[in-house]
Amino acid sequence: MQKTARILIVDDDPLNRVVLDNTLSQEYQISQCESAEQALTFLADNKVDLIISDIRMPGISGYELLERLKANQNTYAIPVIIISASNSYNDEAKGLQMGAMDYITKPFSPLIVKARVKNHLAIKQKNDLLEKLASIDGLTEIPNRRLLDETLSQQYLLCAEHSKSLSLLLIDIDYFKEFNEHYGYAAGDDCLVKVAHSLDCAIQAYQGFVARYDGVRFAVILTGHSSESALEAASHMHDSIDCLMVAHGTSPICAHLSISIGMVHIATDFGGNEQQVFKLADSALYQAHQYQERVVVINK
Ligand SMILES: Nc1nc2c(ncn2[C@@H]2O[C@H](COP(=O)(O)OP(=O)(O)OP(=O)(O)O)[C@@H](O)[C@H]2O)c(=O)[nH]1
After folding, report:
1. Where in 135-258 does DSSP place strands (E)?
2. Which of 29, 63, 149, 172 is buried deepest, with most CB atoms within 10 A?
3. Pocket of ligand 1 contains residue 183 by CB under 6 Å
4. Tally of CB atoms within 10 A around 137
């Protein structure tokens, strides 16, 4: 049987950990931590699908662990089941109010633990799918505007914090209205899918993030690259679209489908914000159209 779901057990009592491990290890991958501190360190480097935690532990308590997990965007969505010796309604209510999915009192029945774990993992799986669908563009299946905005905000903050460079490239397909009018909307859709996948492939070597941000425009975020290297990535994207050789008989600038790119490169924090970065890239794209340049770069 393939054990796909990963469960972390956090309990200072070795016996409790062994009992839970014996209950669940046939079906799931189990990791154990003997304190909340150890669990936080473990979770910084490892992903899990569900956490089972005790409440009363030396050092950080289970409640505080819950609070920290909910405050961290990498861990807030992990379901937590509390297993506690306390059968006080107040303790149970407190745990549930703080975001625990469930509360089981000790001594517990292994059958009940198994059933509840199974149910919570099923809910988590559905939530993960919904989260994915809400972040993916339905046509091209690459990240959508929502995920782009989130990623740009996160990366902008991280780059400013670590004095790392950030480049934002906006990519527009040239004369796409004419393409649609000439070849039809369905052919336009096919073309958008091809362009999205080509850009995605082209940018992999640069560890870039690509998204569709509206109708025929795409965005790429690159971090830790020099302006020259980001420009090379832009050139690589141009080449990948040229290689598609999609005929565009009504384009006044090229016999094949072509793109224009506007890029802003922020070498170090310029005291602005991500909206300003976006505006600068948009202005670079506008200039690329206006002067019929393949790429226009604004360095900050
Ligand atoms: N097939 C298809 N067309 C789309 C989709 N989303 C937007 N479009 C079309 O893309 C065209 C974009 O037109 P414009 O924004 O004027 O761009 P353009 O014709 O490329 O003009 P320039 O930006 O000046 O090169 C419009 O005709 C939209 O209807 C889509 O999902 N599928």
Report:
1. 166-173, 209-214, 217-223
2. 172
3. no
4. 20
Q: 180 C-alpha vs ligand 1 centroid, how far in Å?
A: 8
Q: Which domains does the chain have, with CATH numbers?
A: 6-134 (3.40.50.2300), 145-299 (3.30.70.270)
Q: Give the tokens for residue 54.
A: 């005790």
Q: What is the pLDDT of residues 125-135, one digit of tens each?
A: 999 999 889 99
Q: How many residues does the chain have?
A: 300
Say what the ipTM of the complex is: 0.91
**Phi, psi (degrees; rounded to nearest 5) at 171:** -125, 130
289 lines ligand 1 (CB under 6 A): yes
Taking a C-beta distance cutoff of 8 angstroms, is the pair 104, 53 a contact? no
CA distance linking residue 237 with residue 242, whole number of Å? 9
Residue of 170, 172, 177 best suited for mutating to test ligand 1, as the one with most atoms within 8 Å of CB? 177
pLDDT in tens, 241-298: 999 999 999 999 999 999 999 999 999 877 788 999 999 999 999 999 999 999 999 9
Q: Give the pLDDT score at 73.
A: 81
CA distance 252 to 239: 19
Reduce the DSSP state of residue 226 to 3 states and report it: coil
DSSP 260-274: EEEEEEESS--S--H
CA-derived radius of gyration, the chain: 25
Alpha-carbon separation of residue 16 from 42, 103, 111, 189 (angstroms): 19, 15, 15, 56
Q: For the segment 110-164, what is each residue's pLDDT rounded down to a tens digit? A: 999 999 999 999 999 999 999 889 999 999 999 999 999 999 999 999 899 889 9
H runs (alpha helix) in 58-109: 62-71, 89-97
Compute the distance from residue 203 Cα to the ligand 1 centre, in Å. Answer: 23
Q: What is the pairing mode between strands 217-223 and 166-173?
A: antiparallel
